[in-house]
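Figure 3 (text version): structure tokens given as input.
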């Protein structure tokens, strides 16, 4: 094999690597970018959906009747001359049984039942 043939083979191998590098690398980058774009579009559509939901919530919360309802429920807001009644929960039932035999067996179950009600 002559020196010229050897150089020609080396040049052909080098040219093949250059051509593959020029064709393959951009193709891989292009496919990777397509995946990135698809993920970004999915994320964008999800954010747009959330944005529409939040805008609908803002529109709902902007109504005067709902603002008044929230003010009454959350902050105890009343109109002048309204009568406000606060109903407190009933105190827990207390079970006091004598500390003798049949009642000692019933004390704990009755206390548990009273706490559940």
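Below: residues designed for each position.
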């Amino acid at each position: 094999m002559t020196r010229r043939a050897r150089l020609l083979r080396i040049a052909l191998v080098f040219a093949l690597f250059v051509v593959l590098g020029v064709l393959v690398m951009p193709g891989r980058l292009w496919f990777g970018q397509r995946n990135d774009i698809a993920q970004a579009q999915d994320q964008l559509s999800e954010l747009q959906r959330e944005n529409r939901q939040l805008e609908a919530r803002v529109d709902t919360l902007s109504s005067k009747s709902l603002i008044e309802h929230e003010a009454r429920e959350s902050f105890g807001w009343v109109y002048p001359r309204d009568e406000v009644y606060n109903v407190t929960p009933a105190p827990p039932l207390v079970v006091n049984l004598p500390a003798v035999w049949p009642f000692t067996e019933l004390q704990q179950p009755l206390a548990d039942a009273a706490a559940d009600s």
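Helices lie at 3-61, 64-75, 101-116.
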